[in-house]
Amino acid sequence: MLNIDIDTGGTMTDGLVSGDGTVFSIKVETTPHDVTLSFLEILEAARGHVGAASLRDLLDDVALIRWSSTITSNVLAQKSGPKLGLIVSAGHEDDLYTSPEEAATVLGPLITRENITGISADADDDEVRTAVKGLFDKGIRRINISLEGAFEDNSRERKIVSMIDAQYPDHFLGSIPALPASEILLRPDDSTRTFVSLINAYVHPSLATTLYRAEETLKQEHSWRGNVLVGHINGGVARIGKTTAFDTIESGPLFGTHASAAEAARLGDAKVLAIDVGGTTAKVSAVENGRVVDRDEGHLFGIPVRTNLPLLRSIALGGGSVARASGRTVSLGPDSMGAAPGPACYGLGGRNATTTDAFLLLGYLAPDAFLDGRRTLDADAARDAIARTVGDPLGISPVEAAQRIVDIAFDMTAALARETATEMGWDPADTAVYAFGGNGPLFATGVAERIGARTVRMFGFGNVLSAYGSAISDVLHVYESAVNSADAARTGAELLADEARRDLEGEGFPPDEAVLHWEVRGTGGSRGTADGSVEAALSAVDDPSLVRLTARFPLPSLEKAAVTGGAGAGGRGERGGIPTRDWASVAGSTVTGPALVDGGSFTWLVGPGWSLAVDPTGDAMATRGGN
């Protein structure tokens, strides 16, 4: 049986197919207007690769489909969600239980002040109905209820939801989805619960429509009997029905970080800066001692949330970033050409110069290898665009302009990596840089050199590392409860374990086969962890404030194999004056920079002064200065 893992990004959709003794990757261009189309294109490409007569024949041999994406992230970034309504406790309509500055991050971007209604602490049914009708008459499409102190007792929130369901039932044309904030986030912080519930409601419609459409297409049109598992921000997957929209925010990029954590644990790299550069954004995250670094509070697209989030920093920079002359220098982005019309070299009508055009002009990309040879890149179009928008205004040649574009791109990404290292308190010289994404390996040694890192890791599946992270993921649910004593922690742990069992049973996974991992946090910052029972974790903390349960159900996982070909198996050449080798030919050998290593749908750039050692599975470690 086959497992298919799909990661939908802003520019490219990646696939990784494994099982039955085969492992191969696929890339197609994302279809932003309907990402289910690129989802299905991955499956169609897999069908062609394995030689199945039809998509139904392929799916008959597919055990798992796991899907991660940037769908929810894009809705937040583009501010393209629905019109929301919010009911809060009277007196908090303007501050949303926090400071005016923090409230302003959602007032306007996600919800307008006029669509927020307060109700009194002793509101009767008539007051609640009047508040709901007032929002309904303003044309809102989703209502959130977030009342002060609802973490301790959410009965009032649930009662309001029941009233809305009764007043506007599903069969009524004006039915309105309503959700209590206390069921989205189990944290006592009223403002964070409010913000998270608004984020969830804002991105939910786009995600739900996409996921259900994809799964129903497979079931109804192709008679697939399986279920699409959705990637979560925690590095696990779950059934659609057990997924909230908030669970999926940045899940695609973060699967690359979780894959980096697995590799760091295997390779023994204690401090890792994981750099993911795609077509639209560059992201940097951190891995320490084989674990993804998280924070108890952070920001999602400028919105502060005091809940556990992986450390992830990003800038608007990627292969599609538009380059232009700015005074006597070059600027990049934040606008991007995306997949359509794309960079000028795509030949689809794009006239702006981009990072990809610069890479092509410098010889870093093979014109006939893009998308595994399905598209030939036009170097003349890249040259013309760079000359017109950068070279001529600055009075320099197109090649020099291309080099400046690349240098600026490396500088911007290096600054982001340096900021992340500083936040961690790390000396970049003590870190390993893990580079992945469609463009990450082209940035790797250039960025590492700029920040002073001496070790770089690149991977055979690095161009689809988020899909690889999905391919080694399990069903994973995280539950947490704020507590104020050891007895409350024990009671809370019992309730969390019951909830985990119910959720796993509801998804069709035997709960007795799940692994339960407990974490208890104390008010002074102490932490205790244990598998199986909460008691061992509790014993390490004097004053417990939070109990967290991670329930994991193991799924079949991808295993790496040796690369076909091996060291010395031909594949030598030159491009842009740089010695070039075929990826399959360098497995098990060492390459000295400057050099390019071509892997069909990806290219590694090894800078001058770097030495690249490639292992038999096609993964590589680059070192600088003989270290």
From TrEMBL:
Transmembrane segments: none annotated. Residues 4-164 form the Hydantoinase/oxoprolinase N-terminal domain. This is Hydantoinase/oxoprolinase family protein. Residues 193-477 form the Hydantoinase A/oxoprolinase domain. InterPro entries: Hydant_A_N, Hydantoinase_A, Oxoprolinase-like. It comes from the Bacteria. It comes from Pseudonocardia benzenivorans.
